[in-house]
Amino acid sequence: MSTFRLYRFSPRLLRRAIHARLAWSLKQLIDAWPEDEFAPSATLAEGFFLRLHLGHVDGCDFFLHHQLLVHLLSDDYEKARLIVDVGAHRQPRLRPEVLSLCRECLGDDTSWYEQAFSYNDLPRGRLILTAPDSTAVERSRGWLGRSESLLRMAAPEAHAEWIAFRPVWLLASVAADSAHGFGGYSSNLLWGTIALNANRPGFADLLIQAIHELAHQVLFALALDVPLAFNDPLATYVSPLRQDPRPMDGVLHACFVSARVAQVLAQIEAAAAWAHVAPADQQVLMAEQQASRQAVCDALPTIDRHAQLSALGERVVLAARQTVQR
Fold it and tell me: What are the backbone dihedrals phi and psi of residue 287, each rounded to the nearest 5 degrees, phi first?
């Protein structure tokens, strides 16, 4: 099974399904809002829902939904009203864009993205992101353009996901006082937004990270309602891409993402467009292909021994296993 055969419809339909799921989840939150508290926000809430229902959605809307849930659970209706006001009036980004993590590019969305990026699995405050300098932004913007062009010619299935998911690529840098590094970031709280380190050393490195993060987007979309595994989320296991032990969901993500990177890089190497990739970049991509295949092989024994897989998880593991067995 290919890593591109996990879902039965097109990536465009997958995106529509995720956006519809978000809209109706918002509707459920609105229906649960106490009537006397909801009345002042009825028009705004309807506007927010209708926008999502029409598919006018980007990654920031997923985080607004999350924050609305948090505030309603704590009966903080004043902040809930703020969320629906923002949701009703903001203009989503509806095509793939490359932006800098700064107020000049993101406007009022900046604070929401900054909050969302703080929701990571590192000790709070260890990763601090900041806006990159203009030189890094333009260099990375060019590399992302080249990445899309190369995928269009050599890996059309990956390119179809790029276009269908219409990601907002946010370029960021690691602050001088950050205690942790950063290559890229994806989250189901920001589905459709991908943060990338604007200071990657070369084109090949950014291409690899883009493929990696798009693969995370696939799993986040597929596992919204059905988990990959039923293991205790507090139980941790050896994972191939991190030194610290990870929950089983993290191990499965690492396994699938590595398989996807290996598959796409093999497609690129086999395509006519490979001849136009610089020799130094070819070396990086070939080394990463082998490292990614090894990461899958390293993850599979842990998964086979410990994972309590759902039917979806079984398909994910089968796809990853067959990728490295070819």
Answer: -65, -40
